[in-house]
Amino acid sequence: MRRAILPISLVLLSFGALTALFMWIFQGQRDDVAAAREFLTLLAAGDHGAASEFMTPALSRQINSADLNLRLGNLEQWDRLSFPSRSSNWAGEDRSTEITGTGTTVSGCESSLTIRIENGQIDAFNITPLCPAQDVET
Question: Are strands 78-91 and 110-118 parallel, antiparallel or unpaired?
Answer without folding.
Answer: unpaired
